[in-house]
Model the fold of this input.
Amino acid sequence: MIKITTQIFFVLSLQILAGLILKGQESKPVAASESVVLITDRTLYVASEQILFSAFLQSRDGSDTGPGSRILYVELITPEGNQLYGNKYSVNDNLSSGYLSIPGDIITGIYYLRAYTKYMRNYGPKSYHYTRIKIINPESKDVQVGTIKNNPSQIISIEERTGKTVGSFTISHDKYAYAPGDSVHLLIAGTDSIKSSYRGLCLSVVPEFSESLDQDIPSLNEPYENNGFYYPETRSLSITGKLIDNTSGKALSRTRINLSIFGNGRDFMAMMTDSSGRFFFSLPKYTGYRDLFLCADNIPAANPKILVDNDFCTNPVHIPTNIFTLTPKERETALNMAINIQLGSYFKTGQNSDSVNERREDRPFYGKPNVTLDIDKYIQLPTLEDYFNELTTLVSIRKSKGEKYFWIFGEQEGMTVYNPLILIDLVAINNPALILKIPPSEVSRIEVVNHLYLKGDQIYGGIINIISKKGDFAEINLPSSGVFLNYKFLADNSNDPGINQRQPHKPDTRNTLFWNPHLLLNKDHIARETFKLSGAPGNYLIILNAINSKGEAIEQISRLEVRNF
Done:
């Protein structure tokens, strides 16, 4: 333990001790009809920790009505707007919560948690929420350089912040002083006036001086023009972009874009571009990373190119930021927190990461096919067309103007109206000649669906899916407009950071002792919570946050002491 504390103490000693206590609040939205209020468990962190947050979406006037976005984007950024980590979170009943992992190699400094919806990107970074946080990295001697000189600020004592009823709330606990490892029983109570006046309640218990004072984020001055490209994500995540002719640069309207999702829960969808060449795909609610492939149908005399919008905001931003400083009390708190993190790393067990996909049954989007032709069950034939001829009652290969095309027989009348969807490993190929050139030795099986199939806004006269043996598209040349993406879907919130549960046979190294991102009051406007204290003596803050009728974040704070008796 001496080796641990010596290194941490040395690094923290490099910081200027006198400083400004900061806490970020949201910047006011600029002309956006939707806004975000985000609250973190605290504002002082150590590298490799997780930042816990609770978020509330509302309209610009503070009401619950608005575009109805169901996806929240949260990023950890530098004052220059560079993303260090970001993720996407589901929104239900205007509420969202989760956590972001702080990179282990981050340098000590002041950073920002930024939150927004895709719809808010129409109005630029001025409309986003920003929370200022301090991060300590005891493994690095580097310190982030501030962009402005520290301004004098009134220092408000903790006594002035605690013990007051804010928004008609009270926080009480069974006793004031506790021994390490004791259970704490909390009672949060409110008056009748809070029933409709406050929303988005959350509760945290953190070390004193790990939660700093409020300070508004300076206004952002970067100009931004509303392009109206981004629609509200009212169902799930979306991929948007534009299709252009790479030769002329002109938009290609009324052209079909195909999207394939690989891996467990594989899927396919298609849609037509609008009059300006834009497209919009609403994606399944998967988690983690998955490989996607987008391509456009062949267009005579055109060279299609797909431009995919970045899923996170890339508009430049510059946030005026003070030079990083720590008060003596913050420095002491950071030292204790850093020791906890370093000690806890020795007992860390593997957890699911963003790279692990959600487990789903490995079936294609169309489910069970009507007919499956296993190539290896037949005698070897020279061409793939010969194998299709074995399906004479289901599939026919015909000619029109010297060009071959597929025809699927079915009982529905519409089968003669709509073209079939032809796939190779779930990638759409609208060039039958290319499909028929595939060597049969590269194919595992052929699956056929012989009824009308509606996918998105597209109707198909059946489906033919050719599955290669190696999953390599039988080495054919995919459409030249094709784009592969390793796409980040939703954050997996089922991977609970375990803040409120003490792990058996391990030291209790929690820095946040309790966190409830969505505190619910009963009909009597009361909530009860119980949690275990860690083994570290000291003062802790019980912080209740809520959103008032004006859409502003307010807080009520109480304090408890942990000491060795």
